[in-house]
Amino acid sequence: MTNEYDRAQPHVEPTAAPTPAELREQIAHTRDELGQTVEALAAKADVKAQAKEKTAAVKHEAAEKAALVTEQIREKAEHAAELVREKTPDPILDKASRAAAQVRETTARAGQLASEKTPDPILERAGQAATAVRANRNPLLAVGAVLVVFLLIRRGRGRK
What we know:
Elements: H1 4-8, H2 20-45, H3 47-87, H4 90-117, H5 120-135, H6 137-158
Helix pairs in contact: 3-6
């Protein structure tokens, strides 16, 4: 009668003694398995490394979600702008275009006048601020789009 232990063990002839080479091979195999087991246990016990991995995964997931939301907001803003263009009559678009050109000209003149009368240290700081804004244009545009959508939703709810 064989028990479960006997079935799990490979059949070994009782009279055949393992050779020294076979013993060395078995020892090396057992050491390898033991080393892998110790490494696995050490990895499970390293809470700091697990926390770092989890933090990195959460950061990556948050960045992906932020990129997705930014893209969705950009698409909605583009769609809203297209709807406005489609529904606005041509005479109004022409007037808006002329007004925008006038505003650009007036702004350019005001900017030139301001730069002539502004002290140099203030001009340098304004230049640095403008560079920072240009470097971060996409996040600022996304925040602006979110603000516009929020205000439009709030305004729409206020009329009901």
